[in-house]
């Protein structure tokens, strides 16, 4: 596990959440701080000494909170935050990156995305973005799921961050009827509503089957997996999921993201990026084809 720390008071939330995660025996946790490369070299050296001292203190405190044989190391790098985090995650073979959301900078986030979003794009590894104070283990998780081949990876990562006994998970799937926005005079509202009902029933069945298969692929023993409560809603994905988060008062949102890249991704973003900015809870983002890992907890 790689844990980027920005040396602000918000770092306590991130470290508190790490202490509550169900880490496997002999797990390796690396605390990382990235010093901006725009600083003069003399100031970089001073900042590096300060960061080393702070990270060592965090490591000592974290060891007292985590049970079991978990190794904790620290590292200080100089460079662009997202690039260094992604490189460090690759070097450490990290199964998960846990980091804070950071302060809001609306204009910069619109064009470049937050550091967390850039890490998701560059690292191509699961990223848990911590927004809430870590007072307890996750007990109101929500899973935003597409009915596709990536679902099993998303479910596997979600199970890894939920301690036993695992709580019930609300599963949300948003769908839209193709060509609904076009005006076809021969199609009535009743026919459209009937089509919605048919799709909702089909998707609900497919979702339940997918969840069952995903737990089996994740090698979760019978009785140890979470129970699922599915919600299939018609509407734009972001709005449907945001509304569901507020209604359930979710403390964790788990979702996958598709393999977008380039200018279209940077300026238009994805549903995952939009939810990462808007969700008022922690968010676990699972990219396409995540790293295959051992049991997390």
Mean pLDDT: 84
Helical proportion?
A: 40-55%
Q: What is the string of SSEs from the N terminus onward?
A: EHEHEHEHHEEHEHEHEHHE
State the oligomer.
single chain
Q: Tell me the fraction of residues in β-strands, as a range.
A: 15-25%
Q: What is the β-strand count?
A: 10
The structure class reads alpha/beta
Number of helices: 10
Question: Ranges with pLDDT <50 over ≥5 residues?
Answer: 104-113, 259-269
Descriptive notes:
With 297 residues, the protein is an alpha/beta fold. The protein has a single domain (2-286), classed as Rossmann fold (3-Layer(aba) Sandwich). Helix content is 43%, strand content 19%. The strands form two sheets. A seven-stranded mixed beta sheet has the order 4-5-10-9-6-7-8, with helices on both faces. Strand 7, helix 7 (189-217) and strand 8 form a beta-alpha-beta unit. The chain is elongated and about 75 Å long.
Concise account of the structure shown:
The chain has 297 residues and is an alpha/beta fold. Helices cover 43% and strands 19% of the residues. The chain has 10 helices and 10 strands.
What keyword list fits this structure?
3-stranded parallel sheet, alpha/beta, elongated, single chain, Rossmann fold, 10 strands, 7-stranded mixed sheet
Topology overview:
Elements: E1 2-4, H1 11-20, E2 28-35, H2 41-65, E3 71-78, H3 81-91, E4 97-100, H4 106-112, H5 115-123, E5 127-130, E6 141-144, H6 151-161, E7 169-175, H7 189-217, E8 228-234, H8 237-248, E9 252-256, H9 262-268, H10 271-278, E10 282-286
Parallel strand pairs: 1-2, 2-3, 4-5, 6-7, 6-9, 7-8, 9-10
Antiparallel strand pairs: 5-10
């Amino acid at each position: 596990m790689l844990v980027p720390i920005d040396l602000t008071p918000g770092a306590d939330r991130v470290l508190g959440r790490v202490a509550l995660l169900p880490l496997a025996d002999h797990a390796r946790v690396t605390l990382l701080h990235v010093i901006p490369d725009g600083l003069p070299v003399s100031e970089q050296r001073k900042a590096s000494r300060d960061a080393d001292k702070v990270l060592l203190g965090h490591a000592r405190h974290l060891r007292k909170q985590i049970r079991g044989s978990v190794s904790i190391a620290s590292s200080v790098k100089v460079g662009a935050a997202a690039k260094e985090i992604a490189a460090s995650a690759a070097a450490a073979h990290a199964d998960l990156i846990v980091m804070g959301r950071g302060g809001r900078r609306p204009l910069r986030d619109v064009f470049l995305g937050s550091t967390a979003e850039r890490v998701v794009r560059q690292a191509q590894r699961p990223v848990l973005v911590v927004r809430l104070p870590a007072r307890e283990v996750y007990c109101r998780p929500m899973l935003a799921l597409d009915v596709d081949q990536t679902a099993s990876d998303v479910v596997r990562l979600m199970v890894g961050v939920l301690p036993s006994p695992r709580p019930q998970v609300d599963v949300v799937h948003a769908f839209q009827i193709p060509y609904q926005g076009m005006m076809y005079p021969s199609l009535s509202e009743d026919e459209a509503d009937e089509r919605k009902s048919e799709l909702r029933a089909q998707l609900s069945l497919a979702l339940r089957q997918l969840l069952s298969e995903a737990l089996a692929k994740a090698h979760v023993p019978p009785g140890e997996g979470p129970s699922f409560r599915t919600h299939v809603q018609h509407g734009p994905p972001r709005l449907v999921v945001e509304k569901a988060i507020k209604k359930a008062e979710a403390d964790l949102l788990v979702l996958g993201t598709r393999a977008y890249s380039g200018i279209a991704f940077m300026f238009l973003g994805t549903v995952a990026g939009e939810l990462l900015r808007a969700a008022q809870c922690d968010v676990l983002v699972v990219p396409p084809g995540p790293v295959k890992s051992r049991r997390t907890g």
